[in-house]
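Postdoc handover notes: sequence design on the structure in folder B. Input tokens:
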């Protein structure tokens, strides 16, 4: 897409911010005042606008409800010590969104408009960004089919939204994780790498069963023999050995996490031997028994870095007490500082939103 991008802004009459305790946030409940919306009609994205967040009437025959053409992203915005707003790796999130779109037979959203929409919306909502270092403004882009039609085929029309939410930590305690040996999240050749609604729906029942046994989450495995590790569903997973760090390689059945990618970069930069490979759960058990497997943590935009305190595989429990969480805590601190502009952004991962709203107002006035 070339030329000026026009985004119409209709402001909310009254902000809801006074109703929300920004010092005491959970994850996913509080939305800011506005959302970005675009329509895909007649083969192109159009009507770029920001409007007050509201419920939207949909036809019960909408293809998204029936056959699952629905994709999303999750990214975060924070403020640096100067009060400027920073987006973390928005280019990667935009690319991943469009990868999900292609797999689900949905139209890609133009990258340039996507980035501009993010900057303008977040700049408009920046007073919602919480200050706490474990909190952030979570950004949720979403695309859904819009045709009321019950044929199993790609929709011709779509809606694209960006919502923003002030959030606290997704997990506020260390996790007990059950290695799943009955149900499967995704297979190679399927849609495991796409951020599509069905992947999350499929995870709910097995996760609920694990929760009834006192676990927080499940660790998904490759279907054959349930031997090789995939991911947690809400996050990717890392295993810290005394001399190396392992994380499952991206097979197409695993979400290519942007926090995962950042961690691999940082750890290698710090001189660690990080290996992306097929991780055999039996090797993990043996390494644990030898005392070589010392730390386990999950990574994700929402989860950031979440420590695992217990990992159960069949009848074997592996425990990782807090005094062993050395690398994960150091990493979490560094990643948080990087996102908040408190250390040099040596990887050029943050993008400022400064001025985005003013530029747009001038462009719209012209
Ligand atoms: C994210 O990390 O942004 C996700 O979308 C995961 C979801 C469980 C909240």
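Designed sequence:
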């Amino acid at each position: 897409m070339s030329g000026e991008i026009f985004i119409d802004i209709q402001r909310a009459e009254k902000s809801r911010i006074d109703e929300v305790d920004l010092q005491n946030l959970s994850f996913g409940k509080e939305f800011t005042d506005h959302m970005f919306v675009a329509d895909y009609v007649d083969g192109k994205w159009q009507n770029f606008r920001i409007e007050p967040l509201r419920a939207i009437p949909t036809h019960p025959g909408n293809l998204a409800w029936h056959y699952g053409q629905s994709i999303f992203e999750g990214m975060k915005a924070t403020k640096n010590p100067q009060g400027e707003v920073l987006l973390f790796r928005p280019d990667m999130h935009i690319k991943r969104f469009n990868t999900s779109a292609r797999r689900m037979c949905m139209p890609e959203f133009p990258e340039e408009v996507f980035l501009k929409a993010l900057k303008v919306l977040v700049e408009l909502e920046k007073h919602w960004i919480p200050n706490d270092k474990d909190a952030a403004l979570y950004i949720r882009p979403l695309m859904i089919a819009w045709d009321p039609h019950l044929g199993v085929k790609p929709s011709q029309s779509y809606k694209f939204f960006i919502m923003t939410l002030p959030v606290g930590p997704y997990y506020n305690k260390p996790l007990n994780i059950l290695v799943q040996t009955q149900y499967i999240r995704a297979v190679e050749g399927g849609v495991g790498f796409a951020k599509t609604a069905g992947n999350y729906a499929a995870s709910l029942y097995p996760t609920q069963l694990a929760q009834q046994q006192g676990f927080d989450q499940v660790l998904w495995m490759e279907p054959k023999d349930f031997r090789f590790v995939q991911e947690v569903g809400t996050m990717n997973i890392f295993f810290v050995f005394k001399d190396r760090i392992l994380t499952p390689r991206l097979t197409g059945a695993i979400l290519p996490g942007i926090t995962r990618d950042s961690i691999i970069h940082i750890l290698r930069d710090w001189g660690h031997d990080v290996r992306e490979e097929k991780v055999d759960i039996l090797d993990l058990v043996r390494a644990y028994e030898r005392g070589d497997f010392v730390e386990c943590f999950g990574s994700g935009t929402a989860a950031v870095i979440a420590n695992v305190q217990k990992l159960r595989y069949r009848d074997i429990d592996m425990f990782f007490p807090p005094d062993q969480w050395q690398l994960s805590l150091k990493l979490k601190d560094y990643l948080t500082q990087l996102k908040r502009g408190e250390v040099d952004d040596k990887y050029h991962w943050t993008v400022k939103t400064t001025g985005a709203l003013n530029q747009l107002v001038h462009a719209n006035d012209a």
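Context for whoever picks this up: The mean pLDDT is 96. Don't rerun without checking with the PI first.
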